[in-house]
Amino acid sequence: MAKVVVLGAGISGHTAVSYLSKALSKNHEVVMVSPNSNFQWIPSNIWVGVGLMTPEQVKFKLAPVYKKMGVNYKQAMALSIHPEGDAENEKGFVTIKYVAGADEGTEEKVTYDYLINGTGPKLNFEATEGLGPNKFTQSVCTYEHATHAWETLQASLKKMENGEKQTFLIGTGHPLATCQGAAFEYVLNVAFEIKKRNLMHLADLWWISNEYELGDFGMGGAYVKRNGYITPTKIFTESILKEYGVKWIKRAGVQKVEKGKVFYEDLEGKFHTKEFDFAMLIPGFAGAGMKAYNKKDEDISSELFVANGMMKVDADYTPKPYEEWRAEDWPSTYQSAKYENIYAAGIAFAPPHGMSKPMESPNGTKIFPTPPRTGMPSGVIGKIVAQNIIHIIKTGKKEHLHKASMARMGAACIVSAGYGIFNGQAAVMTVNPIVSDWEKYPEWGRNINDTVGIVGTAGHWIKLFMHYLFLYKAKAKPFWYLIPE
Ligand SMILES: Cc1cc2nc3c(=O)[nH]c(=O)nc-3n(C[C@H](O)[C@H](O)[C@H](O)COP(=O)(O)OP(=O)(O)OC[C@H]3O[C@@H](n4cnc5c(N)ncnc54)[C@H](O)[C@@H]3O)c2cc1C
User: Fold this and answer.
1) Which pLDDT score is estimated for 316?
2) What local confidence, expressed as pLDDT, does residue 450 receive?
3) How far apart, in whole angstroms, are the C-alpha atoms of residue 441 and residue 149?
4) Pick the CATH number of 3-123+286-395 from 3.90.1150.10, 3.50.50.100, 3.20.20.70, 3.30.379.10
5) Residues with C-beta less than 6 Å from any ligand 1 atom
């Protein structure tokens, strides 16, 4: 009998647990440890943030789904990993703390044969003074945040209906933030809602970003095929923002927020402020903050995690200049660099380096996006990690038949830019591979036939369709496994 413990019921962890429970017989145990009683389809939080969906439409209760799957679900936070066990336990274990139910507040040691860390990002609002929904800016990173953002946005819309001008500032809230795609989607949706109400003359809409050029999206930009022409994402993104009446500030490292005012430094080392009435700024991401200990109870966190708490896996972490970065540096099995029965899926794994060129201001402030960590690769990684563990359990052969390097994998990003069957819009971008590979594709860095950008109503339909499809899959409804990640 084998016991597989998965930490985090997000896109990667929930995908992993679904495949594990489907493939493994009842002789084996699959455990899920996650603090939120709900699964949330994060990409649709954008629509919660503009009042077009309710939180109920983007989430569902995990307990009944895990009951159906035969997964032992513990509503708890993982605190620490003990890969070598301790005086009482031969096996590796995780210390968890229950956050709800009769056991709330109590800690437990959960042993494992295989461990998957799918704890996603810690939304690191603390890294920027004054940032976040408890302070002076909004977020759409969770359905609670998005609900709060919509309440605040409504207040601004109301003021405009009464003839008052409003300034909107949307983008990245930390010099090294990623997830530009989500913020970009939100600014377009906010613009669309304002336009729909005929209030554009009272709106001053701003995009603020740590990107060197717009359209970098943390992947060093891309060349996309658009209407038969090859266009840099800089032009693609700027033309969309222009069309939506959004002005922009780029190369900006947000340092601090006060009520109605953002302080930022630019890449020339100059300091600026920007006033706002409504701001939604994505925070920096860090790892979940778990610690790791060896058998002697000594802290070995630095052996399992990089400095920001993301887990070291089968990547090449040797520091090297930007010009020497290679596609081969990227991991493909997500096995821990130190312990063979530990894996990290989704945002929890540490990328070997950025994809965007590192930039620094004369004051030494690093201002550039860290790599994008989108849902599609997170789901694919969750699946292949589960498939490899299933194979090892079933055959006893310690081999990885399934690989999924972000330098070999394509991804689609659908940025909705308005809602409605007939007037909804979306910008659809596909890239293949996600990490550009200038050796394999010397001309464009990627396979230009699969790297495409289009804008239109069809994209909106696809995004809406994906909302229902992925929630269907996550609920493990009949034939869920036929739906790709
Ligand atoms: C607003 C927004 C819109 C987005 N839109 C898109 C999109 O359109 N397309 C796309 O591809 N991607 C999109 N993304 C990115 C996508 O949501 C992420 O790539 C994806 O959620 C990452 O999956 P994950 O499993 O790594 O992390 P998550 O989905 O964040 O899941 C992590 C899980 O771990 C749990 N957890 C945290 N700490 C612990 C702990 N200590 N112990 C146990 N559990 C823990 C969390 O509660 C959570 O359930 C968007 C992101 C945002 C914020």
Assistant:
1) 97
2) 86
3) 42
4) 3.50.50.100
5) 7-13, 33-36, 42-43, 45-46, 77-78, 118-121, 140-141, 179, 182, 288, 290, 346-348, 373-376, 378, 413-414
